[in-house]
């Protein structure tokens, strides 16, 4: 027996979505009408029959999450119909400057948008992150009779997303983790931008997802079989130990004269085509943005159902508070996004006599001391746990309990060798709320996840990357693993803090700022090799992004450096002193945080009067902003014991002293006052 | 009946490989002994029974290609045994500075290494590229009785590679393309760096590859079932319409006391363990790098088989030359890597009165005129053909003939939405020889392929990226699609030319240099919006990477810019002239090519005497190297019609004139001579 009870307004509502899609794209003269028209029935069934959310309280914690992975206009239309803060005028402003309806949905910009999509594959993986977050928080906080956190995550996805490697990675992990509350609807319309998917995408998608351990369902007529859609969703919800994918055969641009062709994918429908579409639906053919009252009424019912569910949930939460006051307090704090009071006090502090350690090890020490007090921290590595040093002793793996390898309450995620999937999943974990995800790989392989990292920053997800083996200092693995361009790439991403700490205090500082920055992702670039603890470094000073580590008055030279090269700069300064050249050392672990300091401070750190030389065992690109002269790697690194690799490239105290001397002489010969590179017109 | 005839030396040879692996890693005290020990039988069977290559002529064109995707010491051992230019001393120098045996195999560095591997998943996708190259060149040049190009491609891969999205993308495409000459051996040892693969990788790999359309075989005892291995390879070779994957169940570190555990993955074996291993093989337990004469003899037979095959092939080629002189001449030219004489003459030249066009359109025009004369150009797009404008009219798709969508002789590749796979496949196409691959997507999504792009540059593969929609100028798609950090990321990669041409002549110049640069990949960053043809641009001038587009003597200001912003800089110069401010304009389409010019030239372009202001609708990071002041995007772009987005960010003639005026005033007030940013100590 079908789960579905038809309503007289179903066809009307679906026609409303289809004609609205045509109108929205038509008015913007830009966008993708085809997929929204094809997916209108699935969206209608999902939102009127199943979806639990309160449009008037879009941040209700136990709401169902919806992700439109092939991001497009459909979502804006649904948000409007459901009563989120999105008016018809907003729909009319689709793809116009500063509107609430930009070309692709942006999290934090438009009410009801959970994650930023458009770049293909990302939304799919974000959805896996949502489902993991729900599974984890449910396992930690639910109690008998208190099923507080049990929402579903629904993802609509297309061929394009499924072709992307990031989606494959996330799908494989989702199957491994047996995420029962994840339901993906795959819009199998046989069309992508290059035309028929026969030209490039002929794999058996159902079989592929079976291989990942998913429940695989299909609906042959996604254009009008509402009962079939409803039954499949029902079956997806019932399966508690597997994620579900529903392959929905649809006709792109259904109802258009060009339906089923590539012509309706990325271009507006012609005026006569839209008119015919409206006539067929019984709508006034010349009226644009027509929305029958019956459609609004239908969606109002859905919205009221959500509001009722939320109010019941609030009652449940009150009862929970009485019964489990500690758990309630912690959950409430986590939902608010505030970290526990005083966690900063546990950050390790070092003095110069403390033994040299690799900053990846210093990172492990930080994680070991702060994790017990911050249950929000859910971390993992892309199969480099022993190298990244991200698993805190005694932590439990996040695994389906049937595996006997861990539980859903576990806080350590085994991502497998899936960097891009990991990054996109972490965006989902962060977007869900209550979780501060950290992820780990070698710095060089953060590049595999570049597509997800930039969306962290754009969407303001607080994701922390533990990026170890951050230079030629990794030694033997060689140039295939030694980052050159990675740091400047990440430094150029807006709203991303790239930290390269030089010692223990700076490592603590990087965690301090990263954890305080609720709307900014951070990449912590950490060494494989041991680093001495430096005289002059403190958490407070390093927290400003750049500071004078070693001060001298009337300097002949300032060397500005980061991470593992700061101690080499100090060594060079010692050698230069012996030759009568007074050298200041500035440590600059984080450009973006330094840039956010007031100008007076910045000019006091990188002051006029003597040349400034930058030193980093990476590409010099970008250091010209902070220095007059740059020393770094001329091209690729090399394979060998790390000390020998440093020698090969002249990054030693002796050679940097020689370089510094050359710089001082050059500017002396120039005979003009040296002005700070920060003194600028713009 | 089995295809396999055992030889008395088989066990001895396999033991040699296993003990050598332990010794090589032991001496270096760094590396991965476990996988080579586990894969020794498969390697032995492949190289002694099947592999067609001549170690004394490692570039023979029709050789079988071998890729060790989970890059490690096994390949060095095989190269040595087979007689490539790699001595025992080279093996002893594993992972030492400047040795022929760096931590991961590097193409172009060590004789017999086809592609650079180590970064997981890349080698798998390179192998797909090899198989595509073979299929294509065979279809173009083979004739009845002249099966000139028919080699196999063998890829050894591990769990790590198969978890990577880039491998999933390439595998799906390989299945679609029905690449019969591709044989992948999957080392299913149930171990990855984090321990048992049960923690993260539990998908059904066989089913997954069936879903992609591969032939899927398995050998249950990869540790000693040589006949089983041989039979599977034989079956793989016999299947002509599907790629083959052989799941080989092996024991990592087979023979070690720690076999089958994560302990042998990435650390040297203990001394007593190595001794026991040698004793068991009947080798002197204290002798390191022991290679029995019988093992050398066995591999010599394999090498001689390859030499004989090559000499037969050379005879065949001579006969082909007589029968098909034109085809022979073209094939010989392609193998040599030389482009046809005079192709440069066909490059379009523009004058200012020619209509404004988008540089993606200018790129299409270049491709249209040069493609007929350069059959080496094999291009495609990641499902953005109509936007990237990469399909030249009349070109045929590269498809299996059974699809009726094209043929293997076709030159246009439908990559699907698989940017990372596309980049890594293109590396394989380039490494095969005879092909200059170009690939296309939006500039923003080149980031998805960053892992492959950096390996193009490191490995010196001539791959050309047609990267359109290169700024906020793409307009409505919004910040999710508008690159900010992408240009500086690519500019910081050594041995990669990032071109951002400003008009028609500069677009021609970028193709000219990209096609002449046989050992350098290039990314051509192209606009969606129309660009006027500029007074002063020529192919010759632009080919120097940067030049004075608009000269004035005694200038007050120089604006240096690239791509779509150069014409805006010119407009600003006009407005400034009206206010009595003399402004020079430098167009700098390619930093790295400009950097390679002599210093005198560079200083003549970016000369001292007046402030230099950079202008680009991207992050300003890095422009400090070439300018005193920078104007660009402060953070993310915005969704809207592109002219409005440019206005929002002040990138208009009017505003840039105002900015320029401010700069001029500031440096006047400073009252000191302005020195070129290129005048430096280092
Ligand atoms: Ca589609
Ligand atoms: Ca393995």
TrEMBL record, chains A, B:
Its EC number is 2.2.1.1. Substrate binds at residues 32, 265, 360, 387, 469, 477, 481, 528. GO terms for biological process: pentose-phosphate shunt. Thiamine diphosphate binds at residues 118-120, 160, 189, 265, 445. Its cofactor is Co(2+); Mg(2+); thiamine diphosphate. CDD domains: TPP_PYR_DXS_TK_like, TPP_TK. One of its GO terms (molecular function) is transketolase activity. One of its GO terms (cellular component) is cytosol. Residues 357-533 form the Transketolase-like pyrimidine-binding domain. Binds 1 Mg(2+) ion per subunit. Can also utilize other divalent metal cations, such as Ca(2+), Mn(2+) and Co(2+). Binds 1 thiamine pyrophosphate per subunit. During the reaction, the substrate forms a covalent intermediate with the cofactor. Pfam families: Transket_pyr, Transketolase_C_1, Transketolase_N. The active site is at 419 (proton donor). Keywords: Magnesium, Metal-binding, Thiamine pyrophosphate, Transferase. It comes from the Eukaryota. Transmembrane segments: none annotated. It catalyses: D-sedoheptulose 7-phosphate + D-glyceraldehyde 3-phosphate = aldehydo-D-ribose 5-phosphate + D-xylulose 5-phosphate. The record marks 32, 265 as: Important for catalytic activity. Mg(2+) binds at residues 159, 189, 191. InterPro entries: THDP-binding, Transketo_C/PFOR_II, Transketolase-like_C_2, Transketolase-like_Pyr-bd, Transketolase_bac-like, Transketolase_CS, Transketolase_fam, Transketolase_N. Belongs to the transketolase family. This is transketolase.
């Amino acid at each position: 027996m079908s789960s579905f009870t038809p309503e007289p307004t179903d066809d009307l509502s679906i026609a409303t979505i289809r004609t609205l899609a045509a109108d929205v794209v038509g008015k913007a003269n830009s966008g993708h009408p085809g997929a929204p028209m094809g997916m209108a029935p699935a969206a209608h069934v999902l939102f009127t029959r199943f979806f639990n959310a309160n449009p008037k309280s879009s941040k209700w914690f136990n709401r169902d999450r919806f992700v439109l992975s092939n991001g497009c206009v459909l979502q804006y239309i649904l948000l409007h119909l459901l009563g989120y803060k999105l008016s018809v005028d907003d729909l009319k402003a689709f793809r116009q400057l500063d509107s609430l309806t930009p070309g692709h949905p942006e999290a934090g910009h438009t009410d009801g948008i959970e994650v930023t999509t458009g770049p293909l594959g990302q939304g799919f993986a974000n959805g896996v992150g949502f489902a993991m977050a729900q599974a984890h928080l449910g396992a930690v906080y639910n109690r008998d009779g208190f099923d507080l956190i049990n929402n579903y995550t629904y993802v609509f996805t297309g061929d394009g997303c499924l072709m992307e490697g990031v989606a494959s990675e996330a799908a494989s992990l989702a199957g491994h983790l047996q995420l029962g509350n994840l339901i993906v609807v795959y819009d199998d319309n046989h069309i992508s931008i290059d035309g028929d998917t026969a030209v490039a995408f002929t794999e058996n998608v159902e079989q592929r997802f079976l291989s990942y351990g998913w429940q695989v369902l299909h609906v042959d007529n996604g254009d009008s079989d509402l009962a079939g859609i409803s039954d499949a969703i029902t079956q997806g919800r019932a399966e508690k130990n597997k994620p579900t994918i529903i392959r929905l055969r649809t006709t792109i641009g259904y109802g258009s004269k060009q339906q089923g062709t590539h012509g309706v994918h990325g271009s507006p429908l012609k005026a006569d085509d839209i008119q015919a579409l409206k006539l067929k639906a019984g709508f006034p053919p010349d009226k644009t943005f027509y929305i029958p009252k019956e459609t609004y009424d239908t969606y109002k019912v859905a919205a009221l159902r959500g509001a009722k569910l939320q109010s019941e949930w609030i009652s449940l939460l009150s009862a929970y508070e009485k019964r489990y006051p500690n758990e309630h307090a912690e959950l409430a704090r986590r939902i608010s996004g505030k970290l526990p009071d005083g966690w900063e006090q546990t950050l390790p502090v070092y003095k110069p006599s403390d033994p040299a350690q690799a900053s990846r090890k210093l990172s492990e020490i930080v994680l070991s001391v702060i994790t017990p007090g911050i249950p929000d921290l859910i971390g993992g590595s892309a199969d480099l746990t022993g190298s990244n040093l991200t698993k805190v002793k005694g932590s439990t793996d996040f695994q389906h309990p049937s595996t006997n390898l861990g539980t859903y309450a576990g806080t350590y995620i085994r991502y497998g060798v899936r960097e891009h999937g990991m990054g996109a999943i972490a965006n989902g974990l962060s977007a869900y709320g209550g979780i501060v995800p950290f992820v780990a790989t070698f710095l060089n392989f953060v590049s595999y996840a570049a597509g997800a990292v930039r969306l962290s920053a754009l969407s303001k997800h607080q994701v922390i990357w533990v990026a170890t083996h951050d230079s030629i200092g990794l030694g033997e693995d060689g140039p295939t693993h030694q980052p050159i361009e990675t740091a400047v790439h990440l430094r150029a991403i807006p709203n991303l803090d790239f930290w390269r700490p030089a010692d223990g205090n700076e490592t603590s500082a990087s965690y301090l700022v990263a954890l305080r920055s609720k709307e900014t992702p951070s990449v912590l670039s950490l060494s494989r090799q041991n680093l001495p603890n430096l005289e002059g470094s403190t958490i407070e000073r390093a927290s400003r992004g750049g500071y004078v580590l070693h001060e001298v008055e009337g300097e002949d030279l300032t060397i500005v450096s980061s991470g593992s090269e700061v101690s080499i700069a100090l060594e060079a300064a010692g050698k230069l002193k012996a030759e009568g050249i007074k050298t200041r050392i500035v440590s600059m672990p984080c450009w973006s945080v330094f840039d956010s300091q007031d100008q007076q401070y910045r000019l006091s750190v990188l002051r006029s009067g003597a040349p400034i030389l930058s030193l980093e065992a990476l590409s010099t690109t970008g250091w010209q902003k902070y220095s007059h002269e740059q020393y770094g790697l001329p091209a690729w690194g090399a394979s060998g014991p790390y000390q020998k690799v440093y020698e090969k490239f002249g990054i030693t105290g002796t050679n940097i002293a020689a370089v510094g001397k050359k710089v001082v002489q050059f500017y002396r010969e120039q005979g003009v006052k040296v002005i700070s590179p920060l003194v600028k017109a713009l």
